[in-house]
Specification:
Layout (H helix, E strand, L loop, with lengths): L5 E2 L14 H7 L3 H11 L11 H10 L6 E6 L8 H8 L1 H15 L3 E6 L7 H14 L15 E6 L9 H8 L23 E5 H13 L1 H5 L9 E8 L5 E6 L4 H8 L6 E4 L5 E4 L17 E5 L5 H15 L5 H18 L5 H17 L3 H5 L1 H10 L1 H8 L4 H7 L1
Parallel strand pairs: 2-3, 2-5, 3-4, 6-10
Antiparallel strand pairs: 1-7, 6-7, 8-9, 8-10
Helix pairs in contact: 1-5, 1-8, 2-3, 2-5, 5-8, 11-12, 11-15, 12-13, 13-15
Bound molecules: flavin mononucleotide and iron/sulfur cluster.
The site of iron/sulfur cluster (SF4) has 14 residues, from helix 12 and helix 14.
Length: about 400
């Protein structure tokens, strides 16, 4: 396994070494099915949080009978602590557009959309220039790179600042001009997505890896990382570290190795996956960053020894209460109840029974919420309570017995 951790500030990410258009040119020399097979062999998984195999998504979209298909680049990036997609769009926009064009070739799409986070409006002029340049050089538009009959163009759609619009079905609703409310699924977007047509929604980083994989070979990506989580991944590192920023890591890197590299000595915990992720206490820093353990969207927030972790949990819950779209009760009411609970815990006014009820509520929210927001919003509450039971006991001065309950 390549053990290098690369820093975007030093400009040495793998993306920096990818020759312009090389992956796209190579891809268009091959049949669409062969490209999907190659991405499959690489083991590339979605970098937007869920880690869904990219090739499987593309194959499903390609298999649908349809007169039109779409490729959507999810550039909503509103997970607290996440900023890697912004850096990719700023520094490597052509790689993202190459990835979208390769996806379009693979599934037979003619139109693409970059759904750009509203707060990233400042990126739009450069992205517009990039798209215009590609149209004039034939890497977008009619007969892309002289490939007869392969027409593909991309537009940019600016979001309006709702976290839930990063969820792919809410994003599609928003693209169609409606309120960004998650849809019932199935059907999934690969069957019925934008305007009811098969649609591949991929994260910015997922798409940027595609041309690198085509250029360097599926075996190259497979040879990095771990068996179940192949390849490299970008992480946004923030919080109590000496060198915050975007880092490229081989999957399987331990949290301890990452902290060593970014100057996070003495950290008491890290939140992996942003507000929707989980809190990992110092005694578990030997855990590896892999899709099967603690990866999610690639946002890592580091908490130094003086941080009040219950305040951190309260802060995350305030975020979820504000960002819940309100469509379903477990999320709309559940997050509010968890917020009230953590506030009472901090005031020393939460009984053991109430805490136990709140932990049950977390499971109910996870099982019954309509979309990933409500299914993952209890993560931080649960993992912080489990990791720092002493903080809770210290405040509530209640029986210690629940500590065993929480941990069991
Ligand atoms: C509340 C919520 C917010 C999300 N925000 C984003 C986002 O900003 N960017 C993103 O790529 N995926 C986000 N996702 C995941 C998407 O729904 C989807 O899984 C992803 O865009 C698929 O791309 P991938 O397969 O390349 O990861 C979010 C999911 C949820 C539930
Ligand atoms: S889980 Fe939350 S964000 Fe998702 S649909 Fe229900 S209320 Fe909306």
């Amino acid at each position: 396994m390549d053990t290098a951790i690369r820093d975007v500030h030093e400009g040495d990410l793998t993306f920096s070494t990818q020759p312009a258009e090389a992956g796209l040119e190579l891809a268009l020399e091959q049949q669409p099915g062969a490209i999907i097979d190659l991405v499959d062999q690489s083991g590339l998984k979605g970098c937007g949080g869920a880690g869904f195999p990219t090739a499987r998504k593309w194959r499903l979209a390609a298999e649908q009978a349809a007169d039109r298909r779409y490729v959507v680049c999810n550039a909503d990036e509103s997970e607290p602590g996440a900023f890697k997609d912004r850096v990719i769009l700023e520094r490597y926009p052509d790689l993202v557009l190459d990835g979208m064009t390769i996806a379009a070739w693979a599934i037979g799409a003619t139109s693409g959309v970059i759904y750009l986070r509203g707060e990233y409006a400042f990126l739009r002029p450069a992205l517009d220039d990039c798209i215009a340049r590609r149209r004039s050089t034939g890497t977008l538009g009619l007969d892309v790179l002289g490939r007869d009959g392969f027409d593909f163009d991309v537009i940019i759609h600016l979001g309006a600042g709702a976290y839930v619009c990063g969820e792919e079905s809410a994003l599609l609703e928003s693209l169609e001009g409606r309120r960004g409310h998650p849809r019932n699924r199935p059907p999934y977007p690969v069957r019925s997505g934008l305007h009811g047509k098969p649609t591949v929604v991929n994260n910015v980083e997922t798409l940027a890896w595609v041309p690198c994989i085509i250029s360097n070979g599926a075996g190259w990506f497979r040879s990095l990382g771990t068996a179940q989580s192949p390849g490299l991944k970008l992480f946004s590192i923030s919080g109590d570290v000496d060198r915050p920023g975007v880092y490229e890591l081989p999957m399987g890197t331990t949290i301890a190795a990452l902290l060593d590299r970014v100057g996070g000595a003495g950290a008491k915990a890290v939140q992996v996956g942003g507000a929707a992720g989980i809190c990992v206490p110092a005694e578990q820093f030997d855990r590896a960053l892999t899709f099967e353990d603690v990866t999610a969207s690639g946002a890592v927030i580091v908490f130094g020894p003086d941080r009040d972790m219950l305040q951190v949990a309260e802060n995350f819950l305030e975020f979820f209460v504000a960002e819940s779209c309100g469509q379903c009760t477990p999320c709309r009411i559940g997050n509010q109840r968890l917020l009230e609970g953590i506030r009472d815990i901090r005031r020393g006014q939460c009984s053991t029974d109430r805490l136990s009820g709140l932990l049950d509520l977390c499971e109910t929210m996870r099982a019954t919420s309509k979309c990933g927001l409500g299914q993952t919003s209890p993560n931080a509450f649960q993992s912080i309570i489990a990791a720092f039971p002493g903080d809770v006991v210290g405040r509530s001065a209640k029986s210690l017995t629940w500590v065993q309950e929480v941990r069991s």
